[in-house]
Every structure is written in C-alpha cells, then in structure tokens.
Amino acid sequence: MPKIKTLEYFRVPPRWLFVKITDETGQYGWGEATLEGHSEAVEGCLDAFAKKFIGYEANDIEHIWQTGYRGGFYRGGPVLMSALSGLDIALWDLKARTLNTPIHHLLGGQVRKKVRVYAWIGGDRPASVSAAARTRRAQGFRAVKMNATEDVGWLDSPSVLAGAVERVRTVRGLGMDVAVDFHGRLHRPMAKRLVKMLEDEGVLFVEEPLLSENPEGIKQISELSSVPIALGERTYGRWDVKRFLKDNSIDILQPDVSHCGGLSELHRLASLCETFDIALAPHCPLGPIALAACFQIALCTPNHVIQEMGFGIHYNTEAGEADVLSYIKADEGWGPFSVVDGYVDAAGWGGVGLGIEVDEEAVRKAAGGEAWRSGWFLGADGGMREW
C-alpha cells in the first residue's frame, strides 16, 4: 500500500487554503483547509501534520483522522479541525483517484439525480437586492440567501430591522425562495424580535439567529417561532453539534466541510442528523475544492436538502482576483457546477475523486501573498459589534 510522500499547502486569493497530498506512486489528492481570516494558524498545523503523517499509509484515512484529532492531547476547535479537514478531503480524493471512481461511490453510492442549490445576494451591508436576485435567477438559481441586517446593537431601535422584512418581500416577489442569515450579528433581545417579524414571510430558513456559543438562546428562539432554524458553520465536529441535536433546537445542520473535519466527519454528521430528523445543508461560501467535496456528500446523503454555492459571493467579487472557477479546469460554463432551474445535475459528477480537476499551474502561480483578514463593525458609540 502506498505511503504519503508529501503534504503541500497553497494560500491563494481571495481567501482560500488548498492542500495537496502525493503518495509514493505519484498519485495525488486535493483538499481545502480554508479558515477565513486565520490562514497562518492552519498552515502551522499543516506543517505539524506533514511531520507526523509523511510515511503513513495513504489508504488509512480513518486511522489518520483519529490520530490527527486525538494525537495531540488538545483537540477540536477551528484551527485543528480546518487543518484536519484539508488533510481528510485530500486523502479521500487520492483514494478515489487510485480506484478510478468518484468519492460518493465509496460512501454508499448515489441517492439522487440532482442537487438543489442556492447562492448569495447582497453583502455585509445589504441594500437593494432586486437586481442581484434577478441576476441569480438568470444564472439558473431559484433560491438565494442574504444577510438579515447590517451591524445591530445589543439592544437597538426596532426600526433597524424593518429593512430585512422588505428585502425578503422583494425577492419573494420575484418567485424565489429566500434564506436569511443573521450571521450571529444579533444578540438575543433583537434576534427574538426579528425571527418573529419573519415568521409570516415564507423564508426558507434563518441561519445563525444567535452564535452557536449560546445554545440556551437558540433553544428559546426555536420555541418562539415555526421558522426553520439552521446553524453549524461555527461548530467543529460531532461533539460541538451534539447539544443542539439533543435540545431539538435546530432543523437544519450546516457543517462546513473545511472546518468540521472533512468528508469523514461530514458524512458522520449527516447520519447523526438523520437519527434526529434534521436536514443537512452544508455551509460553503468557499473555494472549488470544498464545494466539490460538498457535492460528493450531497449525492450520497438522504437528508441533504440544499447546497450553498459561493459563485460571485461578495467576498470574492470585492477582492476582484479570483472566483470558484479560477483554479479548476472546466470545459465550458460552470462545468459540473452548472445550475439549471435551481439544481445541479448529478450526471456531471461522474469523474474520479472529487469530480473536478484542479489547475495546479494556476494554483502555484497564485500562491503566497497576504492572508485575508475578517472585517468588523464599530457601533455609533465606538464599541465593537458582531460582524
């Protein structure tokens, strides 16, 4: 059995961190370990993983995962789990390439013929969304997501929430489904009010009504409204998720494949959610490798309901340097990511491994440079607010 020979990583614009593993035979696999705003910390962890895992059997994915997770005494958290995610995704890609099959065939096989998808509109300070929604509809989307608000004070004027309702009505009036991302920006006094305001507006779901560090508040909000609650991008594996499942406080889990522990952990989380009758909708405003990994899960997961796609998201367009297709080889259009009437066709995902071909020359050419930094908001009083 071939052993791991090299582990490389590449920091590329606009804010992504790619991982490449090569075995002794020359076979390779790609992963994504993006942790927005904290690339250098993940890179340090990947350096440690390279020293630890070079020489390990590349096929022993679960053994490597368990060793990476448990083998350093301290475990969990965004940095370790993002590094482990990139490693894990790359190992699955390598294994499936070696076996000349798609990853989802190794995870049980296909359960659907197409995958429902949505895209972002608006930005961190959402304003007019009508034109953006029309553009997404022309691209084939039938569902979109937007930020609920700009920055909001711990207890703010109720008037600052009115715009969120109007934007939902505008987009719904175009015949599109709308998800509303609170982004953890609101604290409980304001989040309770806005969820109630949205109850009769037909939203697809509300995302992160509070930060996941406030499970008691999330449970309270879930009991105040019938709006489906989604959460999970800031949870890092099954131990972080367990509380929300036991509390029956969420309806949709949104793990990020680049943060939660990779394909191995995302697959486990999907099954765990199924036992609680909770849907899976992986978070993914990231790069093409993470997105391809999500589609591999979508194709083999019964309770997967919709997939986020980062094409043209404000984080990419504001940087003006790269987007999802910048580092992959696609014959025409969006390649396997092409959207028709709200869905991506499973027929485009029959290729080996992740189902995409990374343009290694473009990656190496773009690698390096300054790491992306998260933004933040300051309130009228000069105090810091949630971003």
TrEMBL record:
GO BP: amino acid catabolic process
Keyword DNA-binding listed: no
GO molecular function: lyase activity
Domain Mandelate racemase/muconate lactonizing enzyme C-terminal positions: 126-228
UniProt xrefs under Pfam families: MR_MLE_C, MR_MLE_N
SMART domains, sorted: MR_MLE
Keyword Transmembrane among UniProt keywords: no
Keyword annotations: Lyase
Protein name per the record: Mandelate racemase/muconate lactonizing enzyme family protein
Organism annotation: Patellaria atrata CBS 101060
